[in-house]
Structures are given as C-alpha cells and as structure tokens.
Design a protein that fits this description.
Layout lengths: L13 H4 L19 H8 L10 E7 L3 H9 L4 H4 L5 E8 L11 H18 L3 E5 L4 H7 L6 E10 L10 H8 L7 H4 L5
Antiparallel strand pairs: 1-2, 2-4, 3-4
Helix pairs in contact: 2-5, 3-6
The protein binds flavin mononucleotide (FMN).
C-alpha cells in the first residue's frame, strides 16, 4: 500500500484505491507499441445512453508533433508539469448526432469512459492525470474537430518519477499531501 492509497470506510477495488493523479511523471518512460490498447478497450466498453458511445480520444506520445500541440493548449500551472508524461490524451465528447440532434448525456458518458480508462490504466501500472486547464478552441483547431465535437479534458499518461524534486515547490507539496474526500454521510442520502 502506498502513502497515497485511499483510506476507505469499506473495502474497494485496489485499482480504485491505488489510483491518484500524480504530476511527477517519469520523463524517460516510453510506452511500447500497443501498450495503450487495453485502456482504450476499457473506455470502449463503458455504458452510454442508448449505447451511442459519444466519445473520441486523441492520443500522442511525447516527442511527437501531436504531443507538442496538445501541450501548447495547456494553461497555467499545467504547463509546468504535464510535458514529462509519456503521452497526452484529449477526451472529446460528441454532443450531437449527424442530423444535429442533441446528445444530452454526452459529457456524462465521456466521463464514464474516462473512469473506465483510468481504472484499467491503474491496474496496468499506468497513471492518468485528467485536466480541465487547457484551451479547447486551440485543440479544436489543431485537430480539426467537428462542430459537435468538444474537447472536455486533457490527460497525462505515464509512470511516476522517482522524485518530484523537478516540480515547482507548490506542486511538490501536492504530490505528497494527504488525499481527502467528503465523508460518505455527506454524499449519500438513504431514503427511507
Ligand atoms: C475534470 C477534471 C479536471 C481537472 N483539472 C485539473 C487541472 O487542470 N490541473 C491539475 O493539476 N489537476 C486537475 N484535475 C485533477 C484533480 O485535481 C484531482 O483528480 C483531484 O484533486 C483528486 O485527486 P486524485 O485524483 O489524486 O484523487 C482535474 C480532474 C478532473 C476530473
């Protein structure tokens, strides 16, 4: 059990309790060919409203032009740490069908697919850190996204560096800070 393992009030799957969002990625790690297939397969099998599967994923390995384009879209302090990840992933919601009919659950469905992906990743020793701090318009232009395609998150994928010393001090602290959640009693109502 790592110090970052979730302290839970009931047993949960190890790939859930061990999952967390690091910022100190190993800049020397590279994914071998095919290494990300399992995580996308897990996303593919997520449930979605009417089984519409309103998601699309753009992934780029460090060192590629695509990686640079995604990294450039990051804003604020995300620029300071995300570049050492082995790959960057854009999660895209398809918010309407080809006739323009809205898909009201598209963001929800994409979130479920990302949850599947991140839990599968954890079980394979791959860390995922999702981010909302990026410029969606920049990604829309860079990757020619359609009218109904919205970039919702960018994620880093990779393995953890041996040390977080290379991060700005504020981020080093976050790397080891206790993990917190609202208590179960606050988030669950047992209706009688
Ligand atoms: C939709 C979404 C947006 C997020 N945006 C950022 C971000 O821009 N930068 C960042 O460093 N972390 C970001 N995070 C990571 C959260 O801060 C993190 O998941 C949360 O603090 C819980 O920590 P844990 O994942 O380690 O359990 C985001 C997470 C989600 C799901």
């Amino acid at each position: 059990m790592s110090p970052r393992t979730a302290q839970t009030s009931a047993p949960i799957l190890e790939s859930l309790s061990n999952r967390w969002s690091p910022r100190a990625f190993d800049a020397n790690h590279e994914f071998p060919e095919g290494a990300l297939r399992g995580i996308f397969e897990a996303a593919r099998w997520a449930p979605s409203a009417n089984n519409v599967q309103p998601w699309h994923f753009i992934v780029a390995r460090r060192g590629t032009e695509g990686f640079a384009q995604i990294a450039e879209s990051l804003v604020g302090f995300n620029q300071a740490w995300a570049g050492s990840a082995s790959a960057l992933l854009v999660a895209v919601a398809e918010t309407a069908d080809e006739e323009g009919n809205a898909r009201p659950w598209a963001h929800y469905d994409l979130g479920q697919a990302m949850a599947h992906l991140s839990v599968q990743a954890q079980s394979e020793g791959i860390y995922v850190h999702q981010m909302g701090g990026f410029d969606p318009a920049a990604l829309k232009a860079a990757f020619n996204l359609g009218e109904n395609q919205v970039a919702v998150t960018v994620s880093t994928l990779g393995t953890i560096a041996e040390s977080a010393d290379h991060l700005p001090e504020m981020l080093q602290e976050r790397e080891t800070a206790p993990r917190e959640r609202r208590p179960l009693e606050d988030i669950v109502t047992i209706a009688a």
